[in-house]
Every structure is written in structure tokens, then in C-alpha cells.
TrEMBL record:
<dbReference type="Pfam" id="PF00497">
    <property type="entry name" value="SBP_bac_3"/>
</dbReference>
<keyword id="KW-0732">Signal</keyword>
<feature type="domain" description="Solute-binding protein family 3/N-terminal">
    <location>
        <begin position="55"/>
        <end position="283"/>
    </location>
</feature>
<dbReference type="InterPro" id="IPR001638">
    <property type="entry name" value="Solute-binding_3/MltF_N"/>
</dbReference>
<feature type="signal peptide">
    <location>
        <begin position="1"/>
        <end position="28"/>
    </location>
</feature>
<protein>
    <submittedName>
        <fullName>Extracellular solute-binding protein family 3</fullName>
    </submittedName>
</protein>
Amino acid sequence: MKTGSRIPRLFGAALVVALASSAGWAVAQNAKTLPSLSDTRVAPQQTEAASRRVVIRFLTDSDFPPFDFYDEDGVLIGFNVDLARAICLELNTSCDIKARPWDELFGGLKNGEADAVIAAHRVTPAALKDVEFTDRYFHTPGRFAGRKDSPKVEMTPSGLDGQRIAVARGTAHEAYLKAFFRDSPLVVFENADLAREALAGGKADFIFDDGISLAFWLNGTLSRQCCEMRGGPYLEPKFFGDGLAIAVPKNDPQIRLLLNKGLDRVRASGRFEELVQRYFPVRIY
């Protein structure tokens, strides 16, 4: 039985990193800055005790590029892998990173095989029954896209009044549109691929979709370079999740404090931004 959940599986590296949170569509549309994702204040005596670790053992997946995958030489690489190494470097600890099948990651954490799992897990109520999580290091937005030759309009409920919006059935994106874009006729399809084809073929004026997979489609051959992103990111947690984080055991609060400390230092050093630019060439905020 699969444990945890992660962002939709992709087959390329044209992805999106969104490093902000939003209280709703208006906040997301008008956000100008990207605040830190840190949400934990660590007392000095707590971090001192936690920092005595000599090695941090990570588990990750191996078939989810560009987060974690084997290169042509059989070396495990990816954003998650390099982020784990950067954290260890900032904490002056050794780093042990092993790959396991997705379904076995939380089991390995529970049986003591690892101290943490860094594999693009979503922070969900179901996952929180099994593990704890660090501060979020990644968010996945909803995004609008339109044809390049279509008129420029405000990507707001009033601006899209009467505009046909393609969306996949049963998704958070459909639910969001029904909640906030009630005056826009929805063109609902069985899956996102059909919705994207409808946009490309002129059967819809816009599409609202997962920003990561949408960016991959826009920059790939299937879109035939027909379309482009419109407006900004939508990051309402109620609809689009509470972000991605490193999973840690419930019975080891020190490792969570330590990894949060390492994440803070990686961001402050500029290394996090370097990794973002290396693995995610398409930046969408």
C-alpha cells in the first residue's frame, strides 16, 4: 500500500518552484515577494544538543527527475539529493543517502533504517499520521495558461468573466475555479492532457492546471509552442496542498530541529537558490 503522496510524476526537467504561501487568489495574484518558508523557532540549547549527530541517513526515491534519479553513469543525483548534501555540509555532518522504492520509504524510516526521507512528499493529514515533517522547502502552484495569440486580460474572476476555462475533472483546480471563478464557463475534461489539447485547439480560452506539469507541457513538443503562462501562481493550501517537506520519525524530535536549522543555513548561504536554478530552469511565481 502506497504511503504518502507527492506532486504529479513528470518526464522532464521543465518544472516550477514556488517559494511562497497564499491566503487566497487575490493574495497569490498580487504577491511581489517570496517570504522564507521557515516556520520553526529553535532554541539554542535544543540545536546544540541536536547538532551532535555525526551522520544523517537519508532515504529517497530514484525515478522522479529532476528531484531524484540515476544519471547515465548510474549515479544518484537530483534536487533532493543535492539539497540533502547541502544540509549535511552546513551542519558539518556526514551524509548517507540511499534510494528505495517509493512505497518503502516511510517503512524504512519507521524501522530505523534512516533518519529522514527527502523524496518530494506532500505534507498531508494522511502522511502526518505516520511521520513528522520539517519546514516546507517546495510548493506547487495552480497556474493559468492561454494561447499566445489571445487577447491579454486580467487573470481575475472579473477579468475572466465569460471566458471558457479548460480544467481536469475531479481536481483541486476544478474545485478552485468553482469556488472563485463562478462567472467563467468551465470546459471540464477527463484528464489534464485533454484539457491542454482543447486549449491548443482553440476549444477553450484558458486552462487552469498544476503549474509544474503545465510548465513541462508548455516547454515541450506536445504544446507546439501554442501557449504561455498567464497571471501569477495560486498557492492556497486548502486547494493546492501545504507544500513538500522532509519526513522524519515521530519519535525523534531532535532530527526535525536539526534539519530545519540546516535548511535555514542552506537558504541563507545562497546554495538553495543555486540548486533551484540548476534543476528548475523554468521559474514561475
